[in-house]
Amino acid sequence: MIVEPTPQSWKGRTDPLDGIDGNRIHHIIQLGPSRQEKSVNLLGFACDEGVFRNQGRIGAKNGPPHIRAALANLAVHQPIQLHDLGDVACHDKNLESAQAEYAVMGAHVVSRDQILIGMGGGHEIAFASYLALRQAKPKAKIGILNFDAHFDLRRDKFRTSGTGFLDALEHSPLDTSYFAMGISAPNNTQALFRTAQKNNVQFRLDDHMTANHAMEAAATLTNWFATIETLYMTIDLDCFPSHEAPGVSAPATRGVCYEVIEPLVRLAASSGKLAVADVAELNPSHDIDNRTARLAARLVYVIANTVAAPVQMS
């Protein structure tokens, strides 16, 4: 079910004496689809049915409006075509239908050579985002870059927030490559590590994602980018320490600090291969002082602005 975007979703501060130099995102956001190449399109996924099926704590379906509210007041520093397409909502617990609807809308964006940024919602957005890119580029070698404490390679009787990447790998095994960064060994069973090995998944553990490992991680990513044709990047907010991102479905014990992840996100967004991205698992009912919503908004902001004017990591 599509929930159309409204101006009420984009409210924020105005400084009239500053003119256009005082612009914030709420001043420049456009509602509805774009006809311009390279424009950035935001699409919410108001769903946590996959989290529920995966025995997680629900509430992430309310994430998209909180990301919009946090994003609205961020400053504009360069020309950017930013569009809000509204939300895909999960109706009658029909996750599969919501994923299919999201994929159709997302594929339409990508086929126009535009960028899609999803706002979750549970991490069941992952298979929907993958399908959007696969439908738009059916023969491409797709790389999936996942910043996450969990592999999400579970096998289950139905789709959940934990099956998305195995679903993607089995959907098109010869043309899909998966790289997971920030994996927590204590929170992934031996069965999940075996599944990762069986499917040639590349990964870095959270204890190899510190500031001391930053350049090594960046070099590894750069080499991986050379093996793919198009990129889907997803950021599960539970990859951050719980003090940075308390409002998630599964808070991290250790996590990876934002200062380590942001340069890697910028690197991916400036690779020239990014087509689809999303930020998942914002659970506002467990957030504190909107920390997690602000973090999610900052990530959307970084991706959108880097795609608009790519910046290489120093």
Report on this model:
The chain has 314 residues and is α/β, with parallel strands linked by helices. It has one domain (22-308): Arginase, Chain A. The chain has 10 helices and 10 strands. Strands 1, 2, 3, 4, 5, 6, 7, 8, 9 and 10 form a 10-stranded mixed β-sheet that branches. Helix 6 links the parallel strand 6 (142-147) and strand 7 (176-183). Helix 8 (214-225) packs parallel to helix 9 (258-269) and helix 9 (258-269) runs parallel beside helix 10 (291-308). The protein is globular, with a radius of gyration of 18 Å. The termini are far apart.
The main β sheet shows up as: 10 strands, mixed
Query: What is the N-to-C succession of helices and strands?
Result: EHEEHHEHEHEHEHEHEHEH
Which structural category do the helix and sheet elements fall into?
alpha/beta
Number of helices: 10
Strand content of the residues, in percent?
Answer: 15-25%
Query: What share of the residues lie within helices?
Result: 25-40%
Using the alpha-carbon principal axes, give the shape: globular
Distance between the termini: 43 Å
Radius of gyration: 18 Å
Structural domains: how many: 1
CATH architectural arrangement: 3-Layer(aba) Sandwich
CATH classification class = Alpha Beta
Please name the fourth-level CATH homologous superfamily.
Answer: Ureohydrolase domain
Q: Report the CATH topology name.
A: Arginase, Chain A
Mean pLDDT, all residues: 96
Q: Count the beta strands.
A: 10
The unreliable regions are 310-314
